[in-house]
Backbone:
């Protein structure tokens, strides 16, 4: 199968490319420059640097010519800040492009599509009482992205949306999302103060397997909740402590209201700076203090995701964060919002 990837130099897109090439598929991609320092892409991967949003339909169709598969590993997440209404930014980068790209892909003869989504959408659907789409523009946008994606599916056009959770593992030259976590823990004297609850997680390699598996196995239009390892926050933080060099540092569970106070301060800061938040950090207390667990039978097993070393993947992420904070590693690129 020949596969076209948007975002092939990113953390997830490059993992998918490696997995697909290892399985004998051909991969072509368009991605924003520059290539992260130190990253070496598979030599079999054909890459074009540019902004797909600035390309014409004809140019995109030319990229998809002869492709059976398409992966969308671009867009923005809740970390991107912007003016009100923030939903418009998510619509611009996550929803409108899907409508355009899937229309072009379908016309070009593409048969199988995989899209990187968010596990927040899964919990919005199974926990309607939390009203997550009402309170959090980012989560609403992910639900809307899923609906826009699945509207294209039919007997000859398979669409899979991967509802991705926390992801561990690194890409050379790319700043991990976990720098804030390391900074927070380092700033706490004594025990690490954290909430109850927990989350599901996967490794970068497993995301690559899930994306490849979605192209090979999915039929029709489906959303796959992706989760392989479920950990309470206190379990996860003990692993983090180990790689921070403070294995004896304990974890103290704080009451929910204490986290809410922190959320109030964050939202006040956003308001002061004229920033709209994709997540209402006050209402987010319910999410943070819940067990966001996903059984691997819902997504990982159907897509052929295999066991991996999550402990080592967490360690890679934490160690790189430390090197960045200690300025041992300075040549790194951050997430882009294009």
Residues:
């Amino acid at each position: 199968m020949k596969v076209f990837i948007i975002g092939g130099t990113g953390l997830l897109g490059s993992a998918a490319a490696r997995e697909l090439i290892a399985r004998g598929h051909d991969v072509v991609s368009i991605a924003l420059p520059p290539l992260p320092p130190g990253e070496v892409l598979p030599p079999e991967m054909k890459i074009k640097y540019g902004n797909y949003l600035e390309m014409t339909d004809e140019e995109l169709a030319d990229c998809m010519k002869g492709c059976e598969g398409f992966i969308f590993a671009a867009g923005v997440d809740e970390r991107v800040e912007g003016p009100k209404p923030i939903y418009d930014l998510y619509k611009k980068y996550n929803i409108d492009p899907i409508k355009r790209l899937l229309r072009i892909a379908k016309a070009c003869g593409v048969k199988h599509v995989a899209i990187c989504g968010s596990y927040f959408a899964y919990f919005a659907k199974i926990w309607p009482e939390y009203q997550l789409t009402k309170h959090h523009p980012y989560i609403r946008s992910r639900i809307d992205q899923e609906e826009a994606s699945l509207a294209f599916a039919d007997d000859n056009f398979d669409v899979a949306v991967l509802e991705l959770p926390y992801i561990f593992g690194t890409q050379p030259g790319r700043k991990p999302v976990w720098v804030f976590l390391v900074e927070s823990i380092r700033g706490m004297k004594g025990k690490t103060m954290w909430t109850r609850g927990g989350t599901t997680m996967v490794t970068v390699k497993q995301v690559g397997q899930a994306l490849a598996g979605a192209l090979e196995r999915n039929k029709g239009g489906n959303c796959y909740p992706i989760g392989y390892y479920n950990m309470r926050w206190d379990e996860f933080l003990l692993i983090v402590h180990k790689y921070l060099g403070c294995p004896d540092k304990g974890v103290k569970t704080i009451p929910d209201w204490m986290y809410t106070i922190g959320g109030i301060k964050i939202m006040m800061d956003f308001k002061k700076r004229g920033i709209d938040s994709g997540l209402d950090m006050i209402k987010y207390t319910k999410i943070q203090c819940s067990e966001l667990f996903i059984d691997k039978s819902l997504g990982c097993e159907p897509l052929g995701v295999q066991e991996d070393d999550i402990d080592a993947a967490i360690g890679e992420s934490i160690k790189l964060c430390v090197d960045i904070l200690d300025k041992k590693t300075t040549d790194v690129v951050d997430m882009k919002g294009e």
In short: The two ends are 28 Å apart (CA to CA). The first helix runs from residue 11 to 22. The chain is about 40% helix and 15% strand. The CA atoms of residues 203 and 310 lie 6 Å apart.
